[in-house]
Write a structure and sequence with these properties.
Number of helices: 11
CATH architecture of the domain at 513-622: Orthogonal Bundle
Structural class: alpha+beta
Largest sheet: 4 strands, antiparallel
CATH topology of the domain at 513-622: Cytochrome Bc1 Complex, Chain D, domain 2
Mean pLDDT: 92
CATH superfamily of the domain at 513-622: Cytochrome c-like domain
Helix content: 10-25%
Radius of gyration: 25 Å
Low-confidence stretches: 1-32
Distance between the termini: 50 Å
Shape: globular
CATH class of the domain at 513-622: Mainly Alpha
Strand content: 25-35%
């Protein structure tokens, strides 16, 4: 009875919030109509020149690389690159800087002596990291959408081969001796429905351009940077450990996300997952990792918690040797090896140590600063402000809220935990408000959401303000934290997330013969036997309009015993090729399975009369949406 009274009170409070919110909706609409034009630097990654004199800053928001005096922070040079750069690295001799531009699908080659762009090469789908081999013959590029590592000729940019990596291949790290290249990926590999996620670190022999190993990471979904010690005996990967197979009802018990490291190499003898969180405090979105030259300390940035964790390596290894596994969910563990947590700027991402290990440079993406830490004192001794707008716009404030974990109970997680880099996570979740074990939901892409209302798979939320306001506070954050202005800014940011380029559609909009045949199937009104297809069972009826949704709900026969209702919101189709698995609960591993496995009675479109080739044509067309 006490539980029921509490929930009634919570629901009543939420309804009051909704009613109070209505006047504010006018303000939200006004902001949405005129989004600000400010162009922030948004520093994502940092590098030091081989002599340590110059700090190179990858400014994702400005599409630039800025070269700073490492001692004073003074700008020495600004170099324009492609759109939405995500990673960069030097050639082994430091003569060239390679920058991957994720939305241009290119590599910019920069002469570091002159600061001039020497070449621009094509490189896979959404390149996110780049490394040259030690002899300077091959260039390796991680392709996030391609799920592979593309190998280019380092002199000409000609593609030599591609290597299969994990889903969402994103970050590359070369060992100090150049004998191994390690690739991580931000989305989990495919697993059977409602089973634990699995990831990997793909190990490549750069001399032979071939995969020589896959370090499996069970229960992990979201692996970011890897750091390797100079002697090659210790490796560390930053990662997320989601707990998506149980109802999201235990936020206060740390039962949604674990923020962990995988430690590997000869110093450990195996790969071991160690936690970073502590009792009553969590450290969201570990991203960048660095190991001091003497291996005494490990540094980890936390993009959701605005801090850097300092780990005593000797104590961490001693803890691993003394305790039986697993201990990744032991919230008392980190106290044994975490030496300090140092507050930095907003959304810290990339980091780099000076060659002597005395200074640590941290890129704070969402306040356009570089924090410089003294590793001897574990404190920030200098903050470099990058040139850019002084005013923090509503759109920028909304982005800061989206990436911050401070709103959730004990700073547990934020929007960007499930929507990595403002996209999705490839996981399915059991959200509490629908009942334990009920209405399992697949995570959906956030891009270009305007005009796709309502939200949730059951269509229960009419607006983003309701979705991200009372519902999020009640069932996710477990705290009432957003004031009207904060929520308005967050809604503004989400509604203006742009749609990334479609890699399956030609720039001029022309379709291939297979795509044209698929388009005809998508728009057909009669089947192959000449029988009329009822309007409600035509692909183009439910998935109508430029975004592929008529914004209505239907029962297409894909409901499961876990669902409270078979009536589901019609999802939009933009960039549908990126978002496997499919259906409301993620039970279809591929677009093909939607019809070959989960449409036996032709309720989800008339497809059983199609041949395999015709179904492939339909899928080819859907990829262009």
């Amino acid at each position: 009875m006490r539980r029921r009274v509490t929930m009634v009170a919570v629901v009543a409070a939420a309804l009051c919030l909704v009613l109070l919110w209505q006047p504010g909706m006018v303000r939200v609409s006004a902001q949405l109509s005129t989004p600000p034009e400010e162009r922030y630097a948004s520093p994502l990654e940092v590098l030091l020149s081989p002599d340590g004199a110059r700090l190179y800053v990858l400014c994702q928001g400005a599409d630039e690389v800025r070269v700073l005096d490492a001692a004073t922070g003074r700008v020495l040079r600004t170099i324009s690159v492609g759109h939405l750069p995500r990673g960069f690295s030097f050639s082994p001799d430091g003569a060239r800087l390679f920058v991957v531009n994720s939305w241009d699908d290119t590599v910019t080659v920069i002469d570091t002596q002159s600061g001039r762009v020497k070449a621009t090469w094509a490189a896979g789908f959404e390149p996110s990291s780049v490394v040259e081999d030690r002899p300077g013959k091959l260039l390796y590029v991680a392709d996030r959408i391609g799920n592979n590592v593309t190998v280019l000729d380092a002199a000409t940019g000609e593609e030599k081969t591609t290597l299969a990596a994990g889903r969402g291949a994103s970050y590359l790290t070369m060992s100090a001796d150049g004998s191994r290249l390690y690739a991580t990926h931000v989305y989990p590999n495919a697993t059977p429905h409602r089973t634990p996620p699995k990831s990997e670190i793909t190990i490549i022999d750069p001399a032979q351009a071939r995969v020589v190993g896959r370090m499996m990471l069970p229960d992990i979904a979201g692996v970011f940077h890897v750091a390797l010690s100079r002697d090659g005996r210790l490796g560390v990967a930053a990662e997320l450990h989601p707990k998506n197979l149980v109802p999201m009802a235990h936020v206060e018990h740390g039962w949604v996300f674990g923020n962990t490291l995988t430690v590997f190499g000869a110093d450990v003898g195996r790969s071991v997952e160690v936690p970073l969180d502590e009792l009553d405090r969590y450290y969201a979105l570990p991203f960048g990792v660095a190991i001091t030259p003497d291996k005494s300390r490990i540094y980890v940035t936390h993009g959701g918690s605005d801090c850097v964790t300092v780990i005593d390596t000797k104590k961490m290894l001693a803890y691993i040797r003394a305790h039986p596994e697993p201990f990744a969910e032991d919230l008392s563990a980190s106290a044994n090896y975490v030496e300090a947590r140092v507050a930095v700027g907003k959304n810290p991402r990339g980091l780099v140590l000076s060659r002597d290990g005395g200074r640590l440079f941290v890129a704070n993406r969402l306040d356009d600063t570089i924090s410089v830490l003294s590793t001897r004192e574990n404190r920030v001794t200098q903050t470099i402000k990058l040139v850019g707008p002084d005013k923090v716009s509503p759109l920028r404030r909304g982005e800061q809220t989206f990436y911050a974990a401070k709103y959730a109970f004990q700073g547990h997680f934020g929007c960007s935990n499930c929507h990595i880099d403002s996209t999705f996570d490839g996981l399915q979740w059991d959200l509490e408000p629908d009942g334990f074990g009920k209405d399992i939901v697949d995570n959906r892409l956030l891009e270009d959401l305007r005009g796709t209302e309502p939200f949730k798979w059951n269509g229960g939320n009419p607006s983003i303000a309701i979705e991200c306001g009372p519902r999020t506070e009640m069932y996710f954050w477990r705290s009432q934290t957003f004031d009207d202005l904060t929520l308005a800014d967050l809604v503004l940011y989400i509604r203006h997330l742009p749609l990334r380029p479609n890699r399956w559609r030609a720039a001029d909009g022309a379709l291939t013969p297979a795509q044209e045949r698929g388009r005809a199937i998508f728009h057909r009104t009669v089947d192959k036997l000449g029988q009329p297809i009822p309007e409600g069972n035509r692909c183009a009826y439910c998935h109508s309009g430029p975004k592929g949704t008529n914004q209505k709900s239907f029962d297409v026969g894909t409901g499961k015993w876990t669902d409270n209702s078979g009536v589901l919101d019609t999802p939009q189709l933009m960039n549908v090729a990126l978002t496997a698995p499919y259906l409301h609960d993620g039970s279809a591993k591929s677009l093909e399975e939607i019809w070959t496995v989960y449409n036996p009675h032709d309720r989800h479109g008339r497809t059983n009369d199609l041949t395999k080739d015709e179904l492939n044509d339909l899928i080819e067309y859907l990829r262009t949406r």
